[in-house]
Design goal:
By secondary structure, the chain is α/β, with parallel strands linked by helices. Helix content is 37%, strand content 23%.
Length: 103
């Protein structure tokens, strides 16, 4: 994670791309996202700014099923905001791929 924290600190843009499983980001991505809790704690408890450099963010979602993209997109935006992304693009998605071709 130390390498990832260093990369997040220095990068200009962050892209989160995920399949949608049960109307949410994948479990593995949520596991990784939970490690961003350190940024929340720094900002709200220690009153530190953990990431100075502002970034742009984007989200790509793909999934079938009968859910929607709102929950995973909201979760991804929370993660992006913790990485100091303020300019977050609208979700790019292909949904209901069980009945509509992803193309």
């Amino acid at each position: 994670m130390q390498e990832l924290y260093a990369y997040i600190k220095d990068c200009d843009n962050v892209l989160i791309a995920s399949p949608i499983y049960f109307s949410e980001l994948t479990g593995k991505l949520l596991d990784l996202g939970s490690r961003l809790q350190t940024y929340f704690c720094a900002k709200y408890f220690r009153k530190e700014e953990p990431i100075i450099k502002s970034k742009k963010g984007a989200v790509i979602l793909v999934g079938g099923g009968d859910g929607n993209i709102n929950n995973p997109y909201d979760t991804a935006r929370i993660l992006l905001r913790h990485m100091n992304c303020h300019n977050i693009h609208e979700a790019v998605f292909s949904h209901n791929t069980n009945i509509s071709p992803a193309i």
